[in-house]
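Hi all, posting the design record for the shared folder.

TITLE: backbone redesign
STEP: 1 of 1
STRUCTURE INPUT:
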């Protein structure tokens, strides 16, 4: 269980991944993005998550470089994730997409590279490309995003390397308990995107009551709930005060009753597409 912002979980290949990071979904290129990345790193974040389809890898890379200089950090002290988009799934096209992401970020390697969505008939070849990148030492860890149990089983039956991470939509209205149990059994680290349901849970009465009891915000309670379930989490924010607040999670603990009550809110409700029925 994470005890501070730099604490890590060890992936099945031995790579250490921070439990907590900054997501930059829908943050446009520009000064606000660069400053958000710099603020997060200066306040102790060591994980930044982006994707090709976010169209902001250039700004993320700039923020990383400036933060490394200003905070006198080494590249190896950060954990940087990006994802290959659906249009580039395929063996050669995935290899090319990786090079494009690296160039935009201005980095020599990624710590984690993910297949963004399980596009039927395409993700198997993309996974083969990720295995190549991993075996060549071009990326420290490889994984998938938005994969359900049957997608994971499909990848693993023909692969040399098991995914190290599965990043999925996960929050109190979509607890993903079966998927979490499966990933734990397989040694695959589950990671939550949209952990706050894009802000829709901030007025949730039951979580508000739990937050008041602990003198914490609703966001802090939900993010703490993720960590206590053994789930890596990457909330998005561009505001420095929120970036700081989101990470203030290590001075309290939810009780078993709190954890059960929050889990009881599950409605299998998504804000993003259903991985079994999407069209991009």
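Okay, here is what came back for every position:
SEQUENCE:
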């Amino acid at each position: 269980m994470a005890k501070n912002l730099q604490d890590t979980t060890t992936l099945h290949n031995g790579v250490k991944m921070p439990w907590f990071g900054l997501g930059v979904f829908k943050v446009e290129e520009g000064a606000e993005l660069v400053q958000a990345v710099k603020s997060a790193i200066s306040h102790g974040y060591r994980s930044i998550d982006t994707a090709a389809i976010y169209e902001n890898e250039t700004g993320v890379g700039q923020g990383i470089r400036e933060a490394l200089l200003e905070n006198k950090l080494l590249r190896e002290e950060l954990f940087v994730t990006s994802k290959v988009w659906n249009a580039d799934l395929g063996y050669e096209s995935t290899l090319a997409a990786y090079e494009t992401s690296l160039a935009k970020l201005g980095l020599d390697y990624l710590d984690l590279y993910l297949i963004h969505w399980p596009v039927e008939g395409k993700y198997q070849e993309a996974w083969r490309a990720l295995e190549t990148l991993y075996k060549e030492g071009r990326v420290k860890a490889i994984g998938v995003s938005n994969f359900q149990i049957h997608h994971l089983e499909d990848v693993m039956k023909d692969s040399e390397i098991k995914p190290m991470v599965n990043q999925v939509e996960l929050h109190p209205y979509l607890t993903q308990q079966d998927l979490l149990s499966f990933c734990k059994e397989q040694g695959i680290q589950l990671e939550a995107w949209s952990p706050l349901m894009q802000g829709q849970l901030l007025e949730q009465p039951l979580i508000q009551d739990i937050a008041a009891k602990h003198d914490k915000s609703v966001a802090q309670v939900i993010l703490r709930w993720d960590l206590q379930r053994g789930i890596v989490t990457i909330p998005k924010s561009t505001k420095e005060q929120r970036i700081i607040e989101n990470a203030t999670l290590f001075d309290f603990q939810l009780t078993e009753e709190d954890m059960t009550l929050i889990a009881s809110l599950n409605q299998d409700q998504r804000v993003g597409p259903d991985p079994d029925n999407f069209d991009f």
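COMMENT: The longest helix spans residues 57-71.
Let me know if anyone wants the other runs.
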